[in-house]
Amino acid sequence: MSGGLLGRLRIEGPTMPEAMARIARIITDAPEAAANAGIVDLAERAGTSTATVTRFSRLLGFTGYAKLRVAIATETGRAEQARWRTDISADIAPGDSMDRVLDVVATADTRAIQATAASVDTAAVERVAEAVAGASRVELFGMGSSGTAGREMAFRLERIRVPVWFRPDSHSALTNAALLGPGDVAFGLSHSGRTREVIETLSEAADHGALTVAVTSFGRSPLAEVADVVLTTSVHETTFRLAALSALHSQLLVLDLIYIAVAQRTYERTAEALQVTVRAVAAHRVAEPGRSKPRAAPARPDRPQP
Question: What domains appear along the chain, each with residue ranges and CATH number?
Answer without folding.
Answer: 1-83 (1.10.10.10), 122-265 (3.40.50.10490)
